[in-house]
Design a protein that fits this description.
Layout: E1 7-9, H1 22-30, E2 33-36, H2 39-48, E3 54-57, H3 63-75, E4 80-83, H4 96-104, E5 109-111, H5 117-123, E6 132-137, H6 142-152, E7 158-163, H7 168-178, E8 184-189, E9 197-202, H8 203-212, E10 221-225, H9 239-249, H10 254-265, H11 269-279
Parallel strand pairs: 1-4, 1-5, 2-3, 2-4, 6-7
Antiparallel strand pairs: 7-10, 8-9, 8-10
The protein binds S-adenosylmethionine (SAM).
S-adenosylmethionine binds at residues 14-15, 84, 86-88, 91-93, 116-118, 162-164, 188-193, 220-222.
Length: 281
């Protein structure tokens, strides 16, 4: 069966080669061309599966320039696959500009499901998975890293970060400092590989274990943090409600402003009134 002309987004294993799906193998065999983040790196995977399809490089530095070229190949009737070094393309990997451009030019983009470190790690973390926020890599510079975490401090969703081994200690320190030393976290390392490890505990506990054992500072890491939980008895007030309250307080007495903000956001007026008093509104 010939493959319909489209750009196929094909996830590849994040450690265990068995995780390349039979459908992924079939697509990679049948497309005219595979766009790879790194042709040498992916060459090993492709040869393992006996796939001899032609490859071309598509990475962060040439993606925009290559996007039109890919469209020309599609226009010429060639089906193309996009793969990255590991996992799902576009997830902290190249492909976003390509997909946007191909869609804008009216061609189909067909996704295949498959490995993704964030989702694989989350599924076994024991942290709430009903709502989560994937945040990619934290900034490398300390101030930017702390600022970024401060933005998420009161986010009730599970937070997922990718991290490199040489920055893991800095990131754990920053998480303990900004989100709190007692924030529950899970560090998933080398998922699907021989030394797969899940460390769980408070930020302070996980930091101590990682600092005490150099092996925990090796390999590939997904860091997950429990979302913000208001202290017992204290109602959590979303940032947007605080903004409303602050604005209303510029025109109205606190009591009235709290009642209106409570109505707008479906919160308890006493909690907003108390917050207003504490904040000196
Ligand atoms: N596109 C990939 C995906 O779908 O997961 C992610 C690519 S990103 C450049 C690479 C990062 O993903 C690593 O630095 C690490 O944080 C995470 N990662 C990849 N493979 C992993 C693994 N086997 N175990 C834990 N984390 C992994």
């Amino acid at each position: 069966m010939t493959l319909p002309v489209a750009l196929y987004i094909v996830p590849t294993p994040i450690g265990n080669l068995q995780d390349l799906s039979p459908r992924a193998v079939e697509v990679l065999e049948q497309v005219a061309l595979i766009a790879c983040e790194d042709t040498r790196h992916s060459g090993k995977l492709l040869s393992h599966f006996g796939i001899s399809t032609r490859t071309t490089a598509l990475h962060d530095h040439n993606e925009r320039a290559r996007a039109q070229w890919v469209v020309e190949q599609l226009a010429a009737g060639q089906a193309i696959a996009l793969i990255s070094d590991a996992g799902t393309p576009l997830i902290s990997d190249p492909g976003y500009h390509l997909v946007t451009h191909v869609r804008a030019q009216g061609y189909d983009v067909v996704p295949l499901p498959g490995p993704c470190a964030a989702i694989t790690a989350l599924s076994a973390s024991g942290l709430p998975s009903d709502r989560f926020s994937f945040e990619g890599f934290l900034p490398a510079k300390e101030k930017a890293r702390l600022d970024k975490l401060a933005e998420m401090k009161e986010d009730p969703r599970t937070l997922i970060f990718y991290e490199s081994p040489h920055r893991i200690v800095y990131s754990l320190e920053a998480i303990a400092q900004v989100l709190g030393a007692d924030r529950q976290i899970v560090m998933a390392r080398e998922v699907t590989k021989t030394f797969e490890t899940f460390l769980t505990g408070t930020a302070a506990e996980v930091l101590a274990r990682v600092m005490a054992d150099d092996n925990q500072q090796k390999g590939e890491i997904v860091l997950m943090c429990h979302g913000y939980r208001a202290a017992e008895g204290e109602e959590q007030i979303p940032a947007v409600a605080v903004t409303t309250l602050t604005l209303l307080c510029q025109e109205l007495p606190l009591k009235k402003a709290a009642a209106l903000a409570a109505q707008i956001h479906g919160l308890k007026k006493n909690a907003l009134y108390k917050h207003g008093l504490e904040a000196g509104l």
